[in-house]
Amino acid sequence: MAYVENEALTEEMLQSLQRLVQYNSVEGEPSEGKPFGEGPAAVLKEALEMAEEMGFRTKNVDNYCGYAEIGQGKDIIGLVGHLDIVPAGTGWDTDPFTVTRKGDKVYGRGVSDDKGGVVASLYAMKRVLESGIPLNKRIRVLMGCNEESGSRCMAYYNQHEEPITVGFTPDGDFPGIHGEKGMMGMLARSKSTKIVDIHGGFVSNAVCNECTTVVKSEDVDLEALAHALKETALPDFSLTEENGLITIFAKGVSAHASLPTQGVNACGCTMEALKKAGMEDDFVDFYVERIGTSCDGRGCGLKAEDAYGALTMNNGITKMEDGVITCTLDCRYPVTLSPDQMVGKVKPYLDDPRGSLEVMKVVEPLFYAPDSPLVQNLLSAYQEVTGDMESKPQVIGGGTYAKSIPGIIAFGCEFPGGDNHIHDANECLVVKELGLQQEIYYRAILKLLDM
User: Considering only CA atoms, which of 434, 319, 445 is closest in space to residue 14?
Assistant: First the structure.
């Protein structure tokens, strides 16, 4: 049966979405009883109150996460979303903490990643409750508060609550994510540098979108630098010279760290321009050779690819403290490689006279066979609603709660061919797609009840 939009229901969901988007739920300073700060605790409280109004049982799990639940039985179908967000950043055309409708879209931080997914999940569960369908399993919408910066919320959940039996996280793409690349986080450090100051990027899992760098006039020719910057991929930059110092402001393009080639690394372009303009500097040389702007890790011996995708490497945050430059590096590696193999590949490049690399963490890949029952049941729900028989489940570079909660995969909320500007300014959601998500998730729950 083809999907027909219920405009009244869509409007109700948008109002619920506003209740969540109004909170700046970026991880903040922890305080007693609030492990991720004020914002995440406040939005969780709001979400649980909203769930209670819908008729669900709720529980706040010490402000690490919370859940809404219906049904009875030992097994738990989990819809696992998150309420925390990345920083709003700059460049918005609307208030990022207000759901603003323009044409067929709404804008706001979290409307897609992942407060919209949480709202669609809650309303799908509400439909199951209102249908009166006999439930031999529990259905639980689990809402975390730390997905964007470590998923410690789910580690806490696993230690203190019952496990999810099967389910999905509404935090990826339709028609499903059957694999997620492994992750390796590294930190690059300078050993010596003539750079006076540098600061760029706002989060480690997004492309460095802006970078301000200060160098001495005596170390680089201003005209040559301007020419070199013009030849980069930067959409905009400015140069000022005062009191013997040159300040470079580079405007790049943000993108999720799993898709760094869709962005423009402002720090990387600056470093390459400095080298091309003739600046002789150990860390500039180290950065250009080891990191660069290719996004494939070749300078660190990491370039790799399998049938499900290639390795990517992203520089998110660059900063200088006490004369030392550090750069966060976020690598997403193929599902057929192991953590030990990755560490082995980069080991010969960790120490260099010009700079160093340190492996901070390594996370294993996630992989379900495309023909597994979970993948096929979710795919079937998507196909029934959309009629799209061409799109197939995929492997992505992004990391979701599926790596933290056994038995689930990412399923929605972005549709094939869409771009909701996740982790970028003007994050958006097509209004009709919110209703589509709800319908797909409702049918997915019904199928998982029969598994």
Answer: 434
CA distances from 171 to 144, 161, 180, 320, 401 (A): 12, 22, 12, 33, 8
| Confidence check: pLDDT of 1 > 60 | no
Give the tokens for residue 251: 């405007």
Q: Contact 249/266 with Cβ under 8 angstroms?
A: no
- The DSSP line for 204-258 is TTB---EEEEEEEGGGS-HHHHHHHHHTSS-SEEEEEEETTEEEEEEE-B--BTT
**CB 152, CB 174: distance < 8 Å:** no
Chain centre distance of CA 353: 34
Beta bridge mates, 66: 60, 143
Q: Which two tokens stand for residue 318?
A: 């660059």
Residue 447 CA to its chain's centroid (Å): 28
The DSSP annotation for 185-196 comes to: EEEEEESS----
Return the closest-CA partner of residue 423 out of 171, 188, 180, 200: 171
pTM across the whole model: 0.81
pLDDT at 256: 86
CA diameter of the chain:
77
pLDDT given at position 130: 96
pLDDT of residue 426: 97
Closest CA to 384 of 337, 426, 334, 440: 440
Q: How confident is the model at residue 36 (pLDDT cuts 50, 70, 90)?
A: very high
Residue 337 has pLDDT above 80, yes or no: yes
Q: At residue 200, what are phi and psi to the nearest 5 degrees?
A: -160, 155
